[in-house]
Amino acid sequence: MSLKCKLYEEVRLKNEVTVEGINITDEVDLLLRNLDLGGKYQEEVHGMFEYDREPHAGIAHPVGFRSPNGFLFPFNSYRKSRFSIGYDKGSYILTENGNKVFDIDFLERPEYYRHTTSDGVQMKNIAVYNHEGVVFVTYSNECHLKEKGLDCLYCNINATKSTYADVEGIKWKYPKQIAETVKLAYEEPGRHHVTLTGGFVPEHREMDYYFDVAEAIQNETGLNDFNGTAVIGAPEDHGIIDRYKEAGYRTLAINIELWDKNIFKAICPGKEQLSGGWENWKSSLEHAAKVFGHGRVRSNIVAGLEPKRSTLEGVEYLASKGIVCFAGAWCPNPGSELENHRSPEPEWHWDLVMKMSEIFRKNGFTYDQLYDCSASANSCIHDIYRIEHGLLPVLKQAI
């Protein structure tokens, strides 16, 4: 088997682990308690969503691990998974049905996690580190759609806040706190990018807050272009979108969530009723692409909630307009209305990933564009781009 084929098989396995999760048995729980989480290794911080199938308030989990060839695997627990963690000859290992797959390295904690803001808040609670130089800020850990009874059915942002906010000390983030954290995070080696997101709020309140954060980051870092993505709701006044670019955001994200209009209406009642409906989300994305440019606008579809044909139709259409639309595997989040449902099989998601990668390449999206507009640079599509463009150390050594 060629090196390239081996790398693809490793990414395919990553897709399986992402969908199926990690089985934390009692033995694995003991192993993890001996891991230096919060010291050498990075602990999970619930800034926005809980992706583990069972909440674990007060029990630390690692955020993920690296495979032998450097691919980052998420660590989402699910007691029915065939994948688990073991220990063999002084190394942690990934296992499948009790058999060793390969050695793994848990992800090391970034330096800025050891620091606090000037008003005494731990920086890890301001911006989660997604590795590859990417930081992720959830400024608000709740969505006001809850009080209206209009939550998206797959979403558990409010349930996550109820479970973890007090235990982990997660609260509203202020612009100065975010700016101080981003400045220190940007001192870490590698590329740098920040995503700012939160629960659903009225568009003018959201806009004013995002502009304050952009100004604070610019003042703190000295960077006019700080490579930031603002994740916003679809505004009914499309002129608001232009102002985000003027404020200094390099990229914009408007997450349409579903391409099928009728399924969107059923699954995302708040986005349907309070933001002009599906057509306004689509037209907002199209306007944003004209303002920010090709490959500088991102959207997302929750993969597995609608037929694959519909998702691919949306990805293809949006790509033709210069919009990067990811479709991450749906996780039936605990606390959501769809808790304990099933995501499609890993093979379904892998086929989707391969077809999306082809669409992205056909429409001329570069790795730099995917990096700049993404909340994480560690999706399977990012990995495929790394393989195809020789960006992995193992490929550089082979040349």
UniProtKB/TrEMBL annotation:
Keywords: Iron, Iron-sulfur, Metal-binding, S-adenosyl-L-methionine
MF terms (GO), sorted A to Z: catalytic activity; iron-sulfur cluster binding; metal ion binding
InterPro entries: Aldolase_TIM (IPR013785), rSAM (IPR007197), rSAM_sf (IPR058240)
Residue ranges of domain Radical SAM core in the record: 129-363
Top-level taxon: Bacteria
The keyword Nucleotide-binding appears for this protein: no
UniProt cross-references to Pfam families, sorted A to Z: Radical_SAM
Coiled-coil blocks: none
Keyword Ligase: no
Protein name as annotated: Elongator protein 3/MiaB/NifB
Species: Ruminiclostridium cellobioparum subsp. termitidis CT1112
